[in-house]
Amino acid sequence: MDLFVRESGPAGAPAIVFLHGGRTSGWSWEPVVERMPGYRCLAPDLPQFGRSVRQGPFDIGRAADAVAELIRSRVHGGRAHLVGFSLGAQVGTQLLVSEPGLVDRAVLSGTFVNTLPFPRQTPDLMGLFARTMWSRWLLTRRGKAREPEIPAASLDLYREDMRLATSEQAAQIVVASAGFTLPAGLDTSTVAALFVTGAKELPMARRWAAALARPMPHGVSAVATDMRHDWPLRHPDLFSRTVEGWLTATSLPREIALH
User: Fold this and answer.
1) C-alpha span between 148 and 167 (Å, rounded)
2) What is the pLDDT of residues 72-112, one digit of tens each?
3) How far apart are CA 167 and CA 150, in angstroms?
4) How far apart are CA 84 and CA 194, in angstroms?
5) How sure is the predictor about 140, in pLDDT bands with cuts at 50, 70 and 90?
6) pTM to 2 decimal places
7) In angstroms, rounded to a whole number, what is the distance separating the alpha carbons of residues 64 and 199?
8) Is 145 helix (H, G, I), strand (E, B) or coil?
9) For residues 135 and 171, is the Cβ–Cβ distance under 8 A?
10) Domains of the chain by range and CATH?
């Protein structure tokens, strides 16, 4: 699968693959990427997003396979660090199980995990909700960004992503995300992975992070003090320092509390 990729940084430097959240694409990582000039940074548009919109339909496993293909074909040495947010963190988590040999270290923020007793019914309900809300949003907002984490310089890119999307595509993405459960095999993945959530996220988000980290030999869960779900985009300086600290196995910012 030929994903569209934004690539920057020294060719021979350690590589980081950045996986974006929902309703945005790879451009959303630019404020973080520009703070990490010592790395080769690759920010793909995941299948059915942005300039990879024709690579859909979106599916967590299929997206993880596409990222694995990207690492094999575009990263010198065939191994990369992995950074993911929200939907991208789900894709990254899947990659830790399906292709752990391609990943050096990982930082995954805001990873939703379906722990409800009827996981098969949950995606259907979420899909119906997505169709309704997406159509209403497009009709009432007409593509105007209302999320405060979207920088003014990126509004055109955001609106283009929204223009390309449809309510049916949104439903497909939400269904895939809502159906994400703990992947079997985390206990055999030896990747050093940091699962971090914002302290102002729902309490269950911290339980999800702990549940993901617990079975992994080198998994760690942490909380970003006074932060909301979208803190990687709202606070790129803190997030980039968090990523740098974890990838270099040095120290995390004081705002990041191990959980």
Assistant:
1) 22
2) 999 999 999 999 999 999 999 999 999 999 999 999 999 99
3) 21
4) 11
5) very low
6) 0.88
7) 28
8) coil
9) no
10) 5-115+181-258 (3.40.50.1820)
